[in-house]
TrEMBL record:
The keyword NAD applies. This is D-3-phosphoglycerate dehydrogenase. It is found in: Plastid, Chloroplast. It comes from Triticum turgidum subsp. durum (Durum wheat). Its EC number is 1.1.1.95. GO terms for cellular component: chloroplast stroma.
Length: 498
């Protein structure tokens, strides 16, 4: 999808439940109603990196072109006018360039401008100062940037906060004869104010690739202004960038449709790719624990409080749990919700259902541990359970799991320690600890051709209460489950789908 295509609330609502992914073959997603997409559970992915260099190169091209009056002189010469005196330009070396928005494109423009011998300053409230320093650019306030610059290049996204930030007031604070370049979004400039600033000479020239309305009106004063150089949104239009963007977005959409976690998702918790691959088995564990916990709930009290406890040897700053929290939420909400729930709208849906998700981190004293997490605990507070064995001392449903050899395992149910791989389905069975129980249950399942994948017994103490956690590949029929329930020592059992 190109920026000319608008994905509005109406479009998203018409596709609700069926439209799963919107792919933006570029960076700017100001043409997608993100809130409506999130509500509809529709993932929005973009291709954020493949056109960065193209946009930066276009910014530099416009800068150089404008400083030397290339487009005006070209038009004049083609009209038969040889005007060497009229088109004396200005030099770039030693001039101060202010980069507004020091993200991917802005920083690449900075690198190139340094190569041209310019003094580079930048304004970006969210950019790390050391990244700017490494490129040789100094981060300054908005006021300082616009006041000190000879050239101002715009590289911020269009958001409510950046809409028309370049207006009469800000032009008023700039040096007289400043030069403006915009390859970001037209809407960050109040175009009428820019025309006024050009007319008064406050702004010497502007070079614009983007406009508030695209294409702009044929009689646009701005476009027709003699001190304005324009291109029709060509920032990303290089052969290399178009090919790169096409591949990037195809991979993102394909991955998202297969259920892979999209690193370029715009409306889902954003997690860097290296973190994503490290967390992948924990992501699955988090969702499965959520699923197990919710299937253990009984009664009408509803789930109000959910607590997720991460035990980790890592420094809290090194453990980004947003994705895990979203997956626990998804696991809890999905089996009990009629709406299509995914990573995108999991938090939103939980909130709509009045479900609060609290998180806690417990440090695990094992400095040698390489795994990001020791365990994840999911606790549903003050709910009734259809399996009393899942209730811990505090009256909460508690399940704990960990990743072993890359596979999620259930390791605690209520007060019982078990160890069962979370694949296939699960039967939990509570009984009085005594010999022969595994054989009895195993026999019933075996006779019905239900393959047991894993089995584990946990007990409070010898001869007291114990639970069996049995992983099964197939879903046993009702009769088989009843037979298990009818074993005299069995006090309760529950079948859980993973
Ligand atoms: N003309 C064209 O064809 C192209 C245009 N673009 C546009 O360029 C812009 C930048 O793209 P990228 O660098 O890839 O995005 P980016 O997300 O990497 O960088 C944007 C930067 O702007 C900063 N920012 C946000 N609010 C700000 C504010 N109020 N003041 C100053 N900085 C602020 C962010 O912290 C971020 O560092 C976007 O608007 C994008 O749509 C990108 C590619 C091609
Ligand atoms: O990536 C962006 O934000 C762009 O503006 C590029 O737009 P395009 O994909 O060339 O229509």
């Amino acid at each position: 999808m190109s920026p000319g295509t608008k994905v509005t609330r109406e479009v998203l609502e018409a596709g609700r439940g069926r439209l799963r992914v919107v792919g933006r073959a570029g960076v700017g997603i100001d043409n997608v109603d993100l809130q409506a997409a999130t509500e509809a559970g529709c993932l929005v992915v973009n291709a954020p990196t493949a056109n960065t260099v193209a946009a930066a190169e276009h910014g530099i091209a416009l800068l150089a072109c404008m400083a030397r009056n290339v487009s005006q002189a070209d038009a004049a010469l083609k009209a038969g006018k040889w005007q060497r005196a009229k088109y004396v330009g200005v030099s770039l070396v030693g001039k101060t360039l202010a980069i507004m928005g020091f993200g991917k494109v802005g920083s690449e423009v900075a690198r190139r401008a340094k190569g041209l011998g310019m003094h580079v300053i930048a304004h970006d409230p969210y950019a790390p100062a050391d990244k700017a320093r490494a490129i040789g650019a100094e981060l300054v306030s908005f006021e300082e940037a616009i006041a000190k610059a000879d050239f101002i290049s715009l590289h911020m996204p269009l958001t409510p906060a950046t809409s028309k930030v370049f207006n009469d007031e800000s032009f008023g604070k700039m040096k007289t004869g400043v030069w403006i370049i915009n390859v970001a979004r037209g809407g960050v400039i109040d175009e009428d104010a820019l025309v006024r600033a050009l007319d008064s000479g406050k702004v010497a020239q502007a070079a614009l690739d983007v406009f508030t309305v695209e294409p702009p009106a044929k009689d646009s004063k701005l476009v027709l202004h003699e001190n304005v150089t324009v291109t029709p949104h060509l920032g990303a239009s290089t052969v290399e960038a178009q090919e790169g963007v096409a591949i990037e977005i195809a991979e993102a959409v394909g991955g998202a449709l297969r259920g892979a976690l999209a690193a370029t998702a715009v409306n889902a918790p954003m997690v860097p790719a290296e973190v994503l691959s490290e967390l992948a088995p924990y992501v699955s564990l988090a969702e499965k624990l959520g699923r197990l916990a919710v299937q253990l709930v009984a009664g009408e009290s509803g789930i109000k409080g959910v607590k997720v406890v991460y035990t980790s040897a890592r420094d809290p700053d090194d453990l980004d749990t947003r994705l895990l929290r979203a997956m626990v939420t998804k696991g809890i909400v999905e089996p009990v919700s009629s709406t299509f729930v995914n990573l995108v709208n999991a938090d939103y849906t939980a909130k709509q259902r009045g479900m609060r998700i609290a998180e806690e981190r417990v440090s695990h004293d094992n400095a040698a541990a390489e795994a990001p997490l020791e365990s994840i605990q999911v606790r549903l507070s003050h709910v009734q359970s259809k399996f009393a064995g899942a209730i811990s001392d505090g009256g909460d449903i508690v399940v704990v799991g960990r990743v072993k050899y890359g596979v999620p395992h259930l390791t605690v149910v209520g007060p019982y320690e078990v160890d069962v791989s979370l694949e296939g389905n699960l039967i939990l069975c509570r009984q009085i600890d005594q010999p022969g129980m595994i054989g009895k249950v195993g026999n019933i399942l075996g006779r019905r051709n239900v393959n047991v994948s894993f089995m584990s017994v946990g007990r409070t103490s010898r001869g007291k209460q114990a639970i069996m956690a049995i992983g099964v590949d197939e879903e046993p029929d009702k009769k088989t489950l009843e037979k298990i329930g009818a074993i005299p020592a069995v006090e309760e059992f529950v079948f859980l789908e993973l």
